[in-house]
Q: What sequence folds into this?
């Protein structure tokens, strides 16, 4: 699979009271054509900042280095008119809360056709037809009527479907979904997951899913990047990562989840809390919470390298590799 | 576990007024919570879970039925102070960012419960540090302000605050939904330990079914203001009887790396202002029959649990028990019930619409096929 998006050494520094701090630190990732890739981690791990950097939507004062090439064009270097031509057209975003991302006093039709006409240069009537088709694709009943309705007239799940339709309106090649189902019920979530999966297969759409819900990842993503405190801690095939995690943090995230088979055993939380931006510990950022931490973990900052003993690509940023024996 | 429930709802109903219309958010709910027991309450948003929780502590007035706490009725909160005998009935709210006063120290917040119970300010401070340690926070947290803590820590502070009132029953409305995965586990564990060690009854309201499954002894499933299934958590989970419970369980994505998409339940929860007739779940139900639209469903005890579905849990000698001769199937052709309908063997080739039965007052939705299997 050829890569559609190649992010290399992405670093996002945000201004804090104590000076600039890296919210995303030297992150590299790739997304293939028609592939669903997941970015997992707790809040504050830099997932959302990674996504925003692709759209030039970082907060004021943020400093970005590295590159994010979409078919050879560096998204991070785009400015003004060029950026506008890319945003929405090549890369589109679905955010967590559909009630905040849709404009409450514009009709669905207006919100769905505005950028479609700008980017694709289609006539008003054709945009209308396309919009109705899109709503049909995301399974909104009675699309014609829906085009004249307002966001408030729809339920949360329907609004998220509409937000996905809006993101797809200008036929982007990469969709970034930031916690697309966190605010929704499980039944509605199942519908959205199925929709995203179908769109990838039918349209060769590439998707980056950002969520802390490993269940969602398991259902949707083929490859998974696990982030902690802005850095990559582990990356590889989703099935491999979730069945045989090598990084203690991935293991911890999985243990904190209720398992259908576990019966009434107590949940195993990861001790401590994720570090705030200004106070990322030196060495491996996870070492204060890690059960396997050694003296060397406090000294050297681990780089994500190919894990030993893995035949498929599997990046691991944990030199002691305490879970290696467990898995093999 | 004592047999006498600490909290009991009986036929509880709550109505809201919305632009002149009466909306019945809670419609005749029976539920009990015993000491030392965790009862999980699950359902989609808009089904009335939070209304039930608020009605249980008296934050909203009842339109019918009763709520009793330790055998005494729970009066709705009015302008007067809440009676002292209800102090043992406490609530943990969803959002710890809004339920804690940002301008007061954590220790003072917790001490309030002790002072209201007749203790001195000094007692309150002492008890506050004790309770903070009980929920896994350092005693020094008493001197901090809420903003100094993370979401999970704040929620534990909120739990410590309710404990100051020495509760015998806690109502927790989505206590862990706003938290990160690892913080969720911490708070869920704190709640479980408290219930077991102090013998507190806990009603845990959550839309996160996997957490409820992990911690609850019994689980109640709600749909549009009514309870559709109640039973032992393990039993409800491994063999859900009500089709709605089944759909909820099937919709949970599993983090097993299997790459399996969860099952979809089409449609949305209908507007509670105009609920469907008969069984309220029938427009979305995969096993619905024509008579589901007319017959009101009541909880029936089947195999150690209560289910409100006359297809899956018929009354012992009622009509339409599955497998009985003469049972009406969904499509009208098959002699089997729809859950076991096998098109290859029991349906004749699709010629025309199935013969209309006496029980078909429901106008079918436009796209609903005459036969579920599409023939």
A:
């Amino acid at each position: 699979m050829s890569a559609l998006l190649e992010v290399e050494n992405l670093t996002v520094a945000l201004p804090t009271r104590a000076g600039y701090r890296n919210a995303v630190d030297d992150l590299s990732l790739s997304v293939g054509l028609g592939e669903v890739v997941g970015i997992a981690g707790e809040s504050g791990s830099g997932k959302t900042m990674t996504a925003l950097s692709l759209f030039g939507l970082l907060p004021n004062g943020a400093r970005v280095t590295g590159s994010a090439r979409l078919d050879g064009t560096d998204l991070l270097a785009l400015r003004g008119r060029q950026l506008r031509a890319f945003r929405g057209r090549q890369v589109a975003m679905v955010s967590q809360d559909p009630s905040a991302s849709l404009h409450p006093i514009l009709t669905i039709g207006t919100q769905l056709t505005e950028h479609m006409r700008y980017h694709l240069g289609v006539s008003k009537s054709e945009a209308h037809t396309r919009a109705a088709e899109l709503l049909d694709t995301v399974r909104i009943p009675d699309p014609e009527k829906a085009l004249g309705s307002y966001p408030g007239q729809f339920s949360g799940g329907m609004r998220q479907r509409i937000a996905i339709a809006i993101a797809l309106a200008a036929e982007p090649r990469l969709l970034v979904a930031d916690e697309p189902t966190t605010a929704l019920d499980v039944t509605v979530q199942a519908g959205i997951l199925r929709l995203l999966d179908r769109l990838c297969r039918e349209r060769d759409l590439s998707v980056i899913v950002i969520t802390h819900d490993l269940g969602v990842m398991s259902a949707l993503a083929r490859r998974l990047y696990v982030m902690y405190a802005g850095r990559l801690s582990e990356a590889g095939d989703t099935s491999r990562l979730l069945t045989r995690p090598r990084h203690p943090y991935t293991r911890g995230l999985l243990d904190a989840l209720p398992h259908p088979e576990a019966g009434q055993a107590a949940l195993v939380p990861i001790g401590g809390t994720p570090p705030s931006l200004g106070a990322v510990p030196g060495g491996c950022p996870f070492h204060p919470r890690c059960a396997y931490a050694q003296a060397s973990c406090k000294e050297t900052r681990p780089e994500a390298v190919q894990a030993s003993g893995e035949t498929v690509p599997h990046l691991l940023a944990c030199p002691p590799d305490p879970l290696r024996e467990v898995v093999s | 576990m004592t047999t006498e429930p600490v909290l009991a709802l009986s036929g509880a109903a709550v109505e809201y007024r919305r632009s002149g219309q009466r909306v019945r958010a809670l419609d005749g709910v029976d539920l009990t919570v015993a000491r030392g027991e965790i009862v999980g309450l699950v359902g989609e948003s808009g089904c009335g879970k939070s209304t039930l929780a608020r009605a249980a502590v008296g934050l909203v007035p009842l339109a019918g039925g009763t709520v009793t706490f330790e055998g005494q009725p729970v009066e709705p909160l009015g302008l007067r102070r809440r009676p002292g005998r209800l102090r043992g009935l406490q609530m943990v709210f969803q959002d710890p960012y809004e339920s804690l006063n940002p301008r007061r120290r954590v220790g003072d917040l917790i001490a309030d419960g002790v002072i209201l119970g007749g203790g001195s300010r000094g007692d309150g401070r002492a008890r506050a540090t004790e309770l903070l340690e009980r929920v896994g926070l350092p005693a020094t947290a008493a001197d901090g302000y809420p903003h100094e803590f993370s979401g999970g820590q704040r929620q534990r502070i909120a739990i410590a605050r309710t404990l100051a009132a020495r509760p015998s029953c806690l109502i927790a409305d989505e206590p862990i939904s706003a938290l990160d995965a690892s913080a969720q586990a911490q708070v869920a564990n704190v709640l479980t330990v408290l219930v077991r060690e102090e013998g507190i009854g806990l009603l845990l309201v959550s839309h996160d079914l996997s957490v409820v499954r992990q911690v609850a002894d019994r689980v109640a499933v709600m749909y549009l203001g009514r309870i559709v299934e109640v039973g032992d958590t393990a039993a409800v989970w491994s063999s859900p009887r009500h089709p709605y419970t089944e759909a909820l369980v099937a919709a949970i994505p599993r983090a097993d790396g299997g790459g399996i998409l969860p099952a979809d339940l089409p449609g949305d929860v209908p507007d509670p202002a105009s609920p469907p007739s008969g069984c309220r779940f029938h427009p979305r139900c995969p096993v619905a029959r024509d008579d589901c639209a007319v017959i009101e469903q009541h909880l029936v005890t089947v195999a150690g649990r209560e289910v409100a579905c006359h297809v899956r849990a018929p009354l012992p000698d009622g009509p339409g028990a599955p497998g009985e001769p003469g049972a009406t199937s969904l499509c009208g052709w098959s002699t089997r019930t729809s859950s076991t309908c096998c098109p290859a063997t029991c349906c004749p080739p699709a010629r025309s619409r199935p013969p209309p039965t006496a029980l078909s007052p429901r106008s079918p939705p436009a796209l609903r096929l005459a036969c579920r299997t599409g023939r």
